[in-house]
Design brief:
- By secondary structure, the chain is of the alpha/beta class.
- It is built from 11 helices and 8 strands.
- The protein has helices at residues 2-17, 48-56, 71-80, 84-87, 112-119, 135-138, 158-170, 181-189, 194-216, 243-246, 271-279, and strands at residues 28-34, 58-64, 125-129, 145-148, 174-179, 223-228, 247-254, 261-262.
- An 8-stranded mixed beta sheet has the order 4-3-5-1-6-7-2-8.
- Helix 7 (158-170) runs parallel beside helix 9 (194-216) and helix 8 (181-189) packs antiparallel against helix 9 (194-216).
- The radius of gyration is 18 Å and the shape is globular.
- The protein starts with a helix and ends in an 18-residue tail after the last helix.
Amino acid sequence: MKKIILACVALLTVACTGTEKKADLTSHVIIIGLDGWGSWCMEKGEAPFIKEMMHEGSWTLNKRAVLPTISGANWAAMMNGTPVESSGITNNDPAPTFEPLFLTDHDAQPTIFHLLAEQRPNLETGVICEWGDFLNYADTLCLDFFQRIPQASEHPDAIVDASVKYIQARKPFLCFIHIDALDHMGHSYGQGSDEYYAELPLVDDRVRRIVEGVKAAGIYDESIIMVTSDHGHEGTSHGGSSQLEIQTPFVIWGKGIMKNHEIKETLIQYDIAATVAKIFNLEVPQSWRGKAMEVFE
């Protein structure tokens, strides 16, 4: 009901002001987040699909995580467009470590999902995640759909099945999919381990199958797809400030994205939220510090 009311308000505002809204750059954005995917693995590692998509779109191996290189802080920054100093989210605890500088009307950070719910309430949004705590940073009150995949290590294909089912049924305008397998291997066996490198092509294939699901849904030609990460590893841990932990990959391709383009500009975790906001022509709050990437044709 809230979304219907907000949609009516938005339409009335356009009618009264005579302002014509700019067209969105595309109709669908799919973000696939690979937990624990460090840039260090891409030279030696086998990830044929992702490497092919690097040539099909724009990419960098120099995206910087925010400090500390903890999952919660980094997935939060990717969703809310702000650095840790503003959000107060410094670890995997859903509660901020210190008082945030800005909160929404339901005491949460203004995530990209919150902006869509306020400004484009008719757009379908969803999150499917293997790490349940991710939902603490996505703001589930603003989502149309969210699903936690339990016991992901025992059922590695479940994330693909759930994601493809949702995408084909609902054709979301913004969908975030979280895959945890690489982080599990990093913690269990360590950065650079044979087990980590053995898992990389399996994760790469899950990404490929999700993208095939987007094609089967009939929305691929109107989609922008991103594959990204929260942090790398040093040894079996992360949370520090080493290059191995802070340097992560980012790949983006699809409608209107430059092809075979290496991103040379500075790219920090919270710039991803700003880039999604640009795609959907959203006004961002003053608290955001992210800058949209220059990857559009």
